[in-house]
Every structure is written in C-alpha cells, then in structure tokens.
Amino acid sequence: MQITQSPKVAAEYIQQGKLVLFPTETVYGIGASAFIESACLQIYKVKNRPQDNPFIIHVSSVEEIFLYAKVEEYYKDLIKALVPGPITFVLPKRETRLFSTGLPTVALRIPDHPLVLEFLALAGPVSAPSANLSGRPSITLKSDLLVEFQGKVDLFLEGNEPNIGIESTVVDLTSPEPTLLRPGKVTYSRLLKYFPNIKKNNYKKIDKPLSPGLKYRHYSPNCKVLWYEGEILQPELSGFLGFSLKKTKLNAIVVDNLEYMRKLYSFFIECDRLNLSFAYCEKPLEDEFADILYNRIEKAIGM
Ligand code: TXA
Ligand code: MG
C-alpha cells in the first residue's frame, strides 16, 4: 500500500477506479468512486461486507448534495446549517449514475475534515463505508488501520486522525417526517431544533431495519463485551473502559462521554490484540451523548 499526503494523488487513484483509505472526523473510511461500479463492488470484497448494505457517498459541497439527490425546499436550509459535519442524509436519488446497490435512495455526507474536503473536491463523489472488516469495530487509529488493510488497498491518504471516534449520525429525509436512523455526535436533542417532528427509529430493537446496515452484528471485537456492574471476574483476562482505574490487564480511562466515544473502538481492538477474553465497559454518564454509547456498546454486546 502506498501512503500519500496529497489530496491530488488520492483523487487520481479514485478516478482510476482504485480504492483509497482516508480519515474523516468520525472514523477512517475506505473509498471508491461512486461513479465506478466495479470499484464500489471491490469494497464489498475487501471488507467482506454483505452486498445489500449500501455505502455513504462523501461529497465536498452542499451543491453536490442538491445535484445528486432530490431535496425538498423545506430541507435545504436545514441541511446547509448542519454541514460539513458528522451527519449523513438519506435522500431520494436523482443522479442515476451513482452506485447505490439498486436502491432509489442515496446517503450523502460532507465530512468536516479540510484535507478530505480538498480530496473530495478533486475526486468527485466517493462511496465509502467505515474502514474495517465487516462486523469488526470501526477504526480510529492509523496504526490499527495499517494492520487491518496492509496489502488489501492501493493507497492511504494520510491526514489528521478522526477525533470523534464513532460513525456519523444518519437521518432519513426521504419523507416530510424525518427519521433518525443511527445516533451519532449530532445528537437527537440537537436535531430536534432543526427538525421538530423528527422520529427516533427504534434502532435498539429492530425487526425490519430502515438502514440496512443496522441488521448486521456490528462493532464487535472477538472478546466478549460486557457492561461493568461493579465486579470484574477475571481481571488478568480483562480490559476495562470507564471513569476510574481498575486492576485489569488493560485500562482505558476517560473523563467524559466524548472521550469515551473517541476511545471505544481502539479499546476493543486493543483488547483483541492482547488476546483478552473480556472487555468491560462502564455505563456512560447520563448526558446527551449517552444514547450513542449505549447504541454502539449494546450492538457490540449483541443485545
Ligand atoms: O462516519 C461515518 O458515517 C463513516 C465515515 C467513513 O464517513 N462511514 C460509515 O459508513 O459509517 P458505513 O457504511 O459503515 O455505515 C453507513 C450506514 C449503514 O448503516 C448503511 O446501511 C446506511 O448508512 N445507509 C447507507 N445508504 C443508505 C440508504 N440509502 N438508506 C438507508 N441507510 C443507508
Ligand atoms: Mg461501518
């Protein structure tokens, strides 16, 4: 795998139908041109991802969102106010050349990462799921990324590491009644200010998921993830992520939920690297970000 810091070089790879790893403000992504179907299909192969799970298409400007999707007038200013940022909009597809797994809708996002915005402006729309093997935790550290994808991808566009640590909020805007499909750093309470009638999808217990990715086991390390309930049974085989030091093999201490989000996935990956059997997670603080952590950790537990 080649490594570059040049958005221009990375954009050339994309236009040649190659795959490129790149950072965003949330987690690392693995991208291909959204106009080159064979390149998009290659992402499924590399990630071993179920083929009915569509990708987010990353673009550099709100004009491109309006070009590639049908956006109702009453949504336009709201979208403008929220980008760039850790939020993805599911919209009716307008540009038929975009690869979208045959769906009539498309998920679009403008990442808040200057280097990546430069790359996207040159590359055109880039389809990119999180850069992790399917079912595994998303990746937030360059060192973990290089281990997971060594020899599997053509190029890595190196830039500032993700600083949020969990994937973007996904909002369905295909109808006049918006729905929150996946919680993220743009919280439900913040969204309510923009979309007063937004519904929360029941993303915890879901039979027929609206966001196809929600039906798969997700974000899971090989070790067993557990809620910390005040007791650690086998400390020498355990990792602990929470607010105070415990006598475990691996300790990841955080001061608040934002730091918790930032460290969650790298903690899971480190637990596996150390061959631990258990990853204990302390319950998050009860603030606006608690929802997001419950969502990701319960998925990792398999709840
Ligand atoms: O933060 C993020 O969103 C990261 C970075 C790389 O941008 N990307 C990411 O992609 O998390 P991925 O593929 O791991 O998750 C995309 C989610 C999945 O749950 C997928 O099912 C949903 O978005 N999605 C994509 N297209 C959709 C569509 N047309 N309708 C409903 N859900 C869609
Ligand atoms: Mg993912």
The overall pLDDT, averaged over residues, is 94
Number of strands: 15
Strand percent estimate: 15-25%
Output the strand order for the largest sheet.
Answer: 1-8-2-3-7-4-6-5-9-10-11
Summarize the amount of helix as a percent range. 25-40%
Cofactors, ions, other ligands: threonylcarbamoyladenylate, magnesium ion
What gap, in angstroms, lies between the N and C termini?
Answer: 37 Å
Topology order in helix (H) and strand (E) letters: EHEEHEHHEEHEHEEEHEEEEHEH
**Biggest sheet record:** 11 strands, mixed
Shape: globular
Question: Unreliable runs, pLDDT <50, ≥5 residues?
Answer: none
Compute the number of helices: 9
Which structural class best describes the helix and strand composition? Answer: alpha/beta
Rg, rounded, reads 19 Å
Structure notes:
It is a single chain. It contains nine helices and 15 strands. The protein is globular and about 55 Å long. The chain is an alpha/beta fold and 303 residues long. Helix 1 (7-15) packs parallel to helix 5 (114-123). The chain has helices spanning 7-15, 37-47, 62-68, 73-82, 114-123, 142-149, 188-194, 257-273, 290-301, and strands at 2-4, 20-22, 29-33, 56-58, 87-92, 105-109, 126-127, 155-157, 169-172, 179-182, 199-200, 224-227, 238-242, 250-253, 278-281. The strands form two sheets. Strands 1-8-2-3-7-4-6-5-9-10-11 form an eleven-stranded mixed sheet, sandwiched between helices. Strands 12-15-13-14 form a four-stranded parallel sheet. The structure holds threonylcarbamoyladenylate (TXA) and magnesium ion. The site of magnesium ion has 3 residues, from loops.
